[in-house]
Amino acid sequence: MSRGIADDTTRLLPAATANLKGITTDYGAVEEATEDSLTSQDREEIEQSAKEDRPKRQIGVFSAVFMIFNRIIGTGIFATPGTILGFSGSVGLAMVMWVIGACIAAVGMHVYIIWGTALPHNGGEKNYLEHLFPRPKRLITCLYAANAVLLAYGAGNSLVFAEYSIASIAPSLLQAPSPTPRVFLGCSSVQLVAFACLTFVVLLHGLHIPAGLRLQNTLGMLKIGILLVVVGAGVQALKGDLQEGVERPGNFDSWTKIWDGSRGGSSVLCACLYNVIWSYVGFSNANYALSEMHNPGRTLRIAGPLAIITVTVFYLLCNIAYFSAASKEEITGSGRLVAALLFKNVWGEKTERVLNGFVALSALGNVLSVLFSQGRVNQSLGRERVLPFSKFWASSWPAKAPLAGLGLQWVTCNIVIFTLPPGDAYNFVINVISYPLAVINATISFGLVYLAWRASSSKTQAPPPPSSLPSTFNPPLTASLFIPALAFGFANVFLFLAPLMKPPPGVQPYERLPYWTHAVGGWAVFALGAVWWYISERRLRQLGRVVVVL
User: Are 401 and 482 within one domain?
Assistant: First the structure.
């Protein structure tokens, strides 16, 4: 047995300590284990698990940057600027909203860097919530598991990839034009291509991690190239070099013109800010794979800010490009992608088909990034024994990758793709996916402040803890922690309260369902997790045995 494996096994075996209750490792957590409770077979299984499932550290700064970049930038940058402009009423106010969104993303990234540096394990928010709420046992894990397992995170962009790849290659297969990247047409061709996309990504990440990372990084670089093309078209538009018959919009001709049409009102600004903040969601993506990073603390501290800065620069430059090529009325009233207007006004209508290909590739990069992280979350939940058939979901067979965990996400995504009709039902599922994340982000932000306050009030600082004993994590109460954590926490409180407020006319999320439906659905998902916790804990008590997570 190698020295590394021996050390890992020693941490897990009861011979090393009288009670390992609550210890978390890269392989999962030991819920409760004592010298008397483990048999020789248990010991062998733990040792074998440590040998087989040791994560291979193969993610560096470059890959971590693109994990975040691909997750944040999906297809929204090609359409959302038009929505923000419609809410705000002016180019200047729209740009201010994008800057505010960048600031919120920056403080959020800071919160995740603090947590990720302290608890450098796969699983992301699951680990942070378990640290904050160790009692009742496994309750918070079950609540999080319901959110991670039941919500089809990869379904939306898989359908976007299908729709826009078909529109680029064989548009005749589509039954209707697609005004936005979030419209589900119900076409069998779209469903089949989305199915193929999901299957390809799951097999790639589940059978050959390096190949999946290379493709993910390649698409990230290609996405940067696409955004540079958009920026280049904007430079051409700023020079006034537009297609014949297209009037120069002049949105930046004067300071007055920039702010002309600005709207006030809490409901309008809330709707605007709500959409902007969600456009930056995804900066936590690297935290789900910290066990596979080279020097995770250092990597996260470099990759996180670099990705946020890159995304922000591109967001602002793309907005300038869009506003330079089309008037406000054209952007808000055309019902088309804003990027499509840019391409049409600068290079002609035929280039719109090229843009469809760009959108499809951007969506594929997002699917790769989303499933890469969610597969690891599902595997981590399997190791915590909160899922049925946990040993199967926790497996790293056959390629030391979470193929089973990826397969679980594949199942939920395909259920959404093939069973939900277009319209309100599908929009509800897409919206309800985002809602619980705001609740979780608010919890870990305020929880970080609580831990720092508790450490400060005790007037005793614990020594730096070993990575396997995160229960002694007590961050110092400093301005660099307090201010970002509170700012990010209140921003997410806004995100989960805003859907409960009646939206302004013309921007209702559903045609027939109440506007608050997805908020209720998000809380219902957590409720299902609580029900599962009650059932599973009752079953364990009836069996009268402890749980050892490999």
Answer: yes
pLDDT digits (tens, 9 = 90+) for 149-177: 988 888 888 988 988 888 888 777 665 44
| pLDDT single digits (tens) 295-304 | 998 999 999 9
Co-location of 146 and 37 in the same domain: no
Whether 549 is covered by a domain: the verdict is no
Render pLDDT for 339-363 as a digit per residue (tens, 0 to 9). 888 998 999 888 888 888 998 999 9
Same domain membership, residue 67 and residue 14 = no
Please give the average per-residue pLDDT across 20-26, as a whole number.
41
Same domain flag for 202 and 291: yes
- On whether residue 550 sits in a domain, the answer given is no
Q: What rounded mean pLDDT belongs to the chain?
A: 81
Q: For 152-205, what is the HEC assignment?
A: CCCHHHHHHHHHHHHHHHCHHHCCCCCCCCCCCCCCHHHHHHHHHHHHHHHHHH
- % pLDDT > 70, the chain: 80
**Enclosing domain of residue 46:** 1-54
Place of tokens 């087989």: 52
**pLDDT at res. 103:** 94
Per-residue tokens: 266: 């809490």
The rounded distance, in Å, linking the Cα atoms of 549 and 384 is 5
Contacts 24+ apart (CB under 8 A), 350-358: 353/167, 353/168, 353/171, 354/168, 355/78, 356/164, 356/165, 356/167, 356/168, 356/171, 357/164, 357/165, 357/168, 357/169, 358/78, 358/226, 358/229
Same domain, 45 and 75: no
Angle of CA points 94, 319, 80, to nearest 5° = 70
Q: Hey, what are 426's tokens?
A: 């599908």
Partners of 293 in the beta sheet? 59
Q: Are both 25 and 68 inside the same structural domain?
A: no
Matching residue, tokens 């994008």 = 98
Query: Which of 207, 267, 237 lies closest to 87, judged by CA?
Result: 267
* DSSP conformational letter for 76: G
Tell whether 283 and 165 lie within a shared domain. yes
229 close to 193: Cβ distance less than 8 angstroms:
no
- DSSP structure string for 291-304: GGBSSHHHHHHHHH
Q: Please enumerate in sequence order all residues whose Cβ is within 8 A of that of 411, keeping only pairs 6 or more positions apart, or say none.
A: none
Do residue 315 and residue 365 come from a single domain?
A: yes
Minimal CA–CA distance to 78: which of 363, 368, 365? Answer: 363
Residue 511 has pLDDT above 70, yes or no: yes
CA distance 217 to 365: 9
Residue 453 included in any domain:
yes
So what's the pLDDT on residue 332?
85
Is residue 548 one of the residues assigned to a domain? no
Looking at the structure of the chain, the number of domains it has is: 2
CB-neighbour burial class of residue 107 (10 A; exposed 0-12, middle 13-18, buried 19+): middle
Q: What is the pLDDT of residue 354?
A: 87
**Mind listing the pLDDT tens digit for each residue in 319-333?**
999 999 999 988 887
CATH number at residue 154: 1.20.1740.10
